[in-house]
Amino acid sequence: MVFGPHLTFNFLQVDVYLAKSLAGMLYLFQYPVRPATMTYDDTPHLSAKIKPKQQKVELEMTIDTMSPNYCRSKGEQIALNVDGTTSEDSNTYSMKMMDKQTFSSIQATTNTSRYAAAVFRKGELHLTPLQGILQMRPSFSYVDKADTKHREREAANEGGDSSQDEAEEDVKQITVRFSRPESEQARQRRIQSYEFLQKKQAEEPWVHLHYYGIKDGRSEHERQYLFCQSMGMSENTELVKTRSEYLSMLMPPVTEEKIVKPVGPSNVLSMAQLRTLPLGDQVKTLMKNVKVMPFANLMGLLSQGTDSTAVLRCIQQVAMLVQGNWVVKSDVLYPKDSCSPHSGVPAEVLCRGRDYVMWRFTQERSVMRKEVAAIIKLPPEDVKDFLEQMSVARVNRGWEFILPTDTEFVKKHPDVAQHPDQVWWWWGWLEKVFNLSKEDMMIKKVDPPTAVHVTGDQRIKAARDRARENQASLQKEHSQRKRGAAGTSLRVKEEPVSDGEEPMDTSLPNGSLNGHPDDDDGPPADTLNGHSLHTPSQELQDFVEATFRKHFVLTLSEVKRLFNLHLASLPPGHSLFGGISDRLLQDAILLCRCRQILVPFPSQSSAAADEQKVFAVWETGETFDKYRQVLFEIFMKNYRVRRTLVQTRLTQELGNGVTKADIDRLLKECCVSYGSMWYLKGTVHS
């Protein structure tokens, strides 16, 4: 091929002409979801419209409902979902079936300067520059219309409560917010957002067009403009260029386009970018984003070999020590002249309220949201924001500090923990602002109660002996027991704890049981084989007994969860709210003719201590008890078994009268299956 004023193909000269009649108006349509052999040329086009600036085109075409490939039932169902049962002029499908579809365009490329449409005639090649290359794909906007119809129907069904809703709206609180001047970064983020782009696209009006088929006379007339119209005029001079110049004109060198990087949020920073900052800025950025962090975790995020002493100096500038963990300072999160994103409260007031929340967490592990809100007097959303930054909500326990106390850091750095600047340098003005006395502002140092420990084997043996000796008189004793709580503490000779066994804390919370203070008038704790066993209240006993009759096998963790749900259903001030310890709950379980099943969990098991304490109903007075007892004895030797093993053991112990229905009932009541193995309920997690 020789390039010059003409194109030469195998010694055949071809004149090239540039046609400009349709320049700026010629678009190439591609249909990527349609085979090239199946064109839309003969498909009736119902409408066409374009947004020229955005190069957005929509075409509406008919669907052949008589085609053997058309599913009539589906088409009618789609029309029903979109338009409903009413007949209106605004309906999308007037024929009560989906008889048309819409194609919407997306740009295949934004730069079409190197693309042209070419036609060849009588040894001449005519080129017309393309304005755009658009890919036409089916639009599913009718799905959005169906969803809108569905929401409208639901709203109409709920219209009966509109008067009540209006009454509630009358007393709704109105919060007035004042917009601040928009910064340049905020403006850049806004104009690059999806919402802004959608708004700009919606602002340009549609230009409606008339579609002419490929065989229409008007189309044939327009196709003539693809040929150069001024071939005989003097301006069509011969192109005088060298081969290399002409090749460069056809294929210009690729130049790197300057890409404007979008301005990301101010809190997004990669670790590579972070480590280019000074150490102080690294620490400040990390604490501002994480908010609560142990010192060891902070060192792990910094570059290897960073001096811990330098990090300590930096972190004390931007964070405070709470329970051995570092919490970012309030003035770092809420700088001067800023305000709350929720309520518009000034930064100074926010810092004061958040500092009080931080101080409360130095006093105790958990705080109550209502108590905090009553003192700092800030909007609920701000109080919740403070608490979510440094704590997690616990059922019936308020908000608990998010991390465990880092005693190792406090022991290793006592100078930091007890530094005068670290002992809450703001406490003076907190005292003044919130009218707190100096005694209230002092950090409370409460010695933990002395816990008496007893091994699990001791408690199981004591419970078994008591069940055998007192089974006949258990209900009689309960009915004759006087009202009141047993305030006598459990005193058991302390014995060494075997390896791998967690000691059990037998002390009662706040020196009380079931809400009644310790006194000498209450009934003493039951004594069995030299051990004291607290007698639970009748109501607690009834709850535990009913729970195990329903579930048969439960871990201590699951019993506690069910008990908390039961407490949530009781009215405020009920006697069961008076502090039921884990020890008392386990005593109640063992007194309900239940036993602890010592399941031999694997050493690598990740189950928590409460999840490894498994209790099961041992005796109910039914003949089926012996089936359960054989099953539990099997699980005392292995934490998972096969059905065939259960069937063999039952046959050995109980004879050939064991049926498939008996085994099905037993496994359904007490076990769960994963794969081909059976586990006691609660001892395995999916």
From TrEMBL:
<dbReference type="GO" id="GO:0005666">
    <property type="term" value="C:RNA polymerase III complex"/>
</dbReference>
<dbReference type="Pfam" id="PF19725">
    <property type="entry name" value="RPC5_C"/>
</dbReference>
<dbReference type="Pfam" id="PF04801">
    <property type="entry name" value="RPC5"/>
</dbReference>
<dbReference type="InterPro" id="IPR045576">
    <property type="entry name" value="RPC5_C"/>
</dbReference>
<dbReference type="InterPro" id="IPR006886">
    <property type="entry name" value="RNA_pol_III_Rpc5"/>
</dbReference>
<feature type="compositionally biased region" description="Basic and acidic residues">
    <location>
        <begin position="456"/>
        <end position="469"/>
    </location>
</feature>
<feature type="region of interest" description="Disordered">
    <location>
        <begin position="454"/>
        <end position="534"/>
    </location>
</feature>
<protein>
    <submittedName>
        <fullName>Polymerase (RNA) III (DNA directed) polypeptide E</fullName>
    </submittedName>
</protein>
<feature type="compositionally biased region" description="Basic and acidic residues">
    <location>
        <begin position="145"/>
        <end position="156"/>
    </location>
</feature>
<feature type="domain" description="DNA-directed RNA polymerase III subunit RPC5 C-terminal">
    <location>
        <begin position="448"/>
        <end position="686"/>
    </location>
</feature>
<dbReference type="GO" id="GO:0042797">
    <property type="term" value="P:tRNA transcription by RNA polymerase III"/>
</dbReference>
<feature type="region of interest" description="Disordered">
    <location>
        <begin position="145"/>
        <end position="171"/>
    </location>
</feature>
